[in-house]
Every structure is written in structure tokens, then in C-alpha cells.
Amino acid sequence: MYRIAHISDLHIKKEEHDANTQIFLDLLADIVKRNCNHLFITGDITDNANDEEYSKVKNLLSKCNFLNSATLTVTIGNHDIFGGAKKGPEVFLFPTECKNTNYYNKVKKFHEQFNESFEQAKLLDEDTVFPFLKILNDKIAIIGINSIAEWSSDLNPTGSNGNINDNNLKSIKDILTSKKIRNKLKIILIHHQFNKPVKGKLDDEQNMWLYSERRTMRLHNKKRIFKLFKKTGFDLILHGHTHITNSHKLKGSLFVNSSASVIPFTKDKKKRYHIINIPDKTERGNKFTLDVITL
Prior knowledge:
This protein is an alpha/beta fold. It has helices at 19-33, 51-63, 94-99, 103-113, 115-118, 166-176, 205-212, 222-232; strands at residues 2-7, 38-42, 72-75, 121-123, 132-136, 140-144, 185-189, 236-239, 245-250, 253-258, 272-278, 289-294. The longest helix is centred in the N-terminal third of the chain and has 15 residues, at 19-33. The radius of gyration is 18 Å and the shape is globular. The two termini are 22 Å apart.
């Protein structure tokens, strides 16, 4: 059995007594205890994408033997590019800070900081880094995608919305239709969610929050993106961004979200993540099973 832990949205801060750091350490200890072979992190690994935060994350991953390409695969989140809004009266400056962010330098920095994770990955474009392909255990194809939109006053004013441009969509299509991964389990790693809050279910706190943030936490062009995924074929999409851990099906496709692993935006405040269990031999068409872990 090959076991993969999926976590997301760690938001590690540079402060010495950052509570998220201790939670992350406890989370890693639990993952090790459960004999996981590999770790996926789907974005917002840092809170403000600075060197101190990256250093803290990497040190903890290294202590738990996850800082190498055979055991770690990461994709990028909006905080890993634009950071987060300041608290207090300077919050109004955040859109301007997002506008002035060098998007491509931040993506390259993410790649450089986690170069150990990318060593066994095939990059279709060295300059843009994403999308990439990594083969695990000779039968699992991992497609890592950057879903963070570039800054735009209309489409992404505060850096948290998503988009995938035409060039990246073509590269994703090339990966998903490659003969190299034809008979492998195909797992897509992406930060943004595809489901949207349902207006008629606003009695749920999480859904109410997502609905109120629907213009600042959306994935633009998601119908076209999902159509490409479905047409070319995949088995599983793992994402984060919403700070809730759940799974759901969309037109028969399974989406798994583990973004409440450190900072849950839920009423019960319980931290949860998923483990994907992949059997050595597929029986009765079951390619994998999914466990929900509560800390």
C-alpha cells in the first residue's frame, strides 16, 4: 500500500512564537505516525512568502524526512505570491502591494525554495515552472498547476482569485494526453476550488463566509478548465484555499480539499486532512481509497 498525505493552507509566519508552526509540527508528526510515503501540500504554505517563513517550513519538513522529491510534492498558493493583507489601518494598502508584486519572480522564488521537491519533476517551461509532471512509485502521475491569477484591478485586485491562461492550459493538455502517463493514476494538484457556495444554504457558517467572499476567492474560467480536465482524463483533483476539509463529486469527478489541516474556518475548529491509499494491485477497479484524519 502506498500512502499519500494531503494537507494545505499552512500559513506559516516568520514570528518566533507563531501558533501555526507548532500545529504544522504536530501535523507532520501525525503523518509520520501513520506511515505515509509521500506528502502533498496544495498552496498557501507561507503567509507572506518571505525567506524566514520558507526557512521555517523547510526545517520542519527536513526534520520529518519530507524535504526531498521522493517524499514531497508542492504547488503554489496566493499567499506564496501576494502574501496577506496587513491588519489595522494599513489594510487599505494591500491592493496596491498586490499590484506592485513581481508575480513571476515570486513563482521562481517558490520553485527555488522547494527545489528539493522539484528534482524529479519535469517542467514544461523552466521560466514559468508550472505546470509540472512528477511520476511516483512508477504508477502515479502528479500534475502540479499554478492557479493563481496575475494581478488585475477587475479580476484579481487582492491577489486571491484564480485563473489559468491559454499557454498553461495547452501545457496541461500536453501532460494529460501524454502516452507516458496513459495507464497511470492521474492526480491534479491545484490551489483553487471548483465548487461555489450555494445561495440557498447560507445557514452554514462556512458557506456563508464563502458566499460573502465569492468575488475575491473565485477561479475564473473554471468551466473551461474543468472541461479540459474531463476531456483529457484524470482520477483525482486535490486543492485547498477554503480552509475546510471535505470531498465532493462534480459531474462524476472527485475533488478533495484538505485546507482545514492547520487553520479550519469551521464552527467545530477541528483540524482535518486526507490520506490517499493506493493499493499495490488494483482490485475490482478501485484505484484508491480515501481516509479523513481528525487531529
